[in-house]
Amino acid sequence: MADPVLGNETNRYKQLIEKIFFDGYKKGAKSIEWERKDLETAAKQLKIILPLNLGDVIYALRYRNPMPDSVVSTASKGMEWIIEGNGRAKYRFALVKLNRILPNAALATIGVPDATPEIIRAYKVDDEQALLAVVRYNRLIDTFLGLTTFSLQNHLRTTVPGIGQIEIDELYVGIDRHGCHYVIPVQAKGGKDQISVVQAKQDITWAEKKFPGMRCRAISAQFMADDRIAMFELTIQDDLVVVVDEKHYKLLPANELDSKAIISYR
Predict the structure, then answer these.
(1) Which residue spans of the chain are classified as CATH 3.40.1350?
(2) What's the N-to-C CA distance of the chain in angstroms?
(3) What is the CATH number of domain 9-97?
(4) Is residue 78 predicted with pLDDT exceeding 90?
(5) DSSP string, 96-143
(6) CB atoms within 10 A of CB 204
(7) 8 Cβ contact partners less than 8 Å away, ≥ 6 residues apart
(8) Residue 210 exposed, middle or buried by CB count within 10 Å (0-12, 13-18, 19+)
(9) By CB neighbour count within 10 A (0-12 exposed, 13-18 middle, 19+ buried), where does 119 fall?
(10) What angle do CA 213, 134, 178 make, to 5 degrees?
(11) How does strand 90-96 pair with strand 100-101?
């Protein structure tokens, strides 16, 4: 078992979150409010070295690591605990039906001619940046949504009333054949990170407040095995994030495209 004081990051993060959760938990609770400073208090009480990046504790439990088993066991059947923003440096544990969005392994893969410049592949910084670049250069947002879209801004940091600071991985705007305009926040996850409903809900809430005259279509992209890319369209129904559509794409050299498959796509 890891040293409780110097334990690895995953153990430290889970111990801190577990402490904060049960300090505020009462049987039957559906939400528990807390603040970032509670991480410092919990670290002192547990005699754990406080992580230098407090934000990474929240990020890891949102997108990378599961909640501690003790926290999971308190959730009612079919529900999961997530960490939502609740204002500046404020958070809330909330019970929801869906937390992580995972690709459907049984879904067919669509071959797309690879238009990624080789120099971009040579100098990619990390999985998330690589995924955003691949999606952009291959116009996968256009292909997935059937719109003409344009990248407006990368890594947009902003705030949402009642939620706090958020970061949108990439923001697109688009137009359809009828002239309708769209705002398209994109969430990208590579490596071991997973798509979370938390970021999707934040992105949609911000987009609808910032661009009330445009239709919001929130997209999430995830690297899969065999260099495939899963694309999801997400929306909010009854205050819950749900999947509208899902497609899997694989970028291929032109000479490796399956002509029979191209015909069958019709």
Answers:
(1) 109-264
(2) 55
(3) 3.90.1150
(4) no
(5) ES--EE---TTSPEEEEE----HHHHHT--SHHHHHHHHHHHTTHHHH
(6) 19
(7) 2
(8) middle
(9) exposed
(10) 30
(11) unpaired
CATH of domain 109-264: 3.40.1350
As annotated, the residues of the chain forming the CATH 3.90.1150 domain(s) are: 9-97
Could you tell me the pTM of the whole model? 0.82
The two tokens of residue 85 are 């923003």
CA distance linking residue 205 with residue 195, whole number of Å:
17
More confident position, 225 or 67: 67
The rounded mean pLDDT for the chain is 89
**Can you tell me the distance from the alpha carbon of 244 to that of 234, in angstroms, rounded to the nearest whole number?**
5
- What one-letter code names the amino acid at 107? L
| pLDDT tens sequence across 107-166 | 999 999 999 999 988 887 768 889 999 999 999 999 999 999 999 999 999 988 888 889
- Amino acid identity of residue 226, one-letter, is D
Burial class (CB in 10 A: 0-12, 13-18, 19+), 186: buried
DSSP run (H or E) holding 90: strand 90-96
**Token pair in block for residue 246:** 């899902």
Coil, helix or strand at residue 195: strand
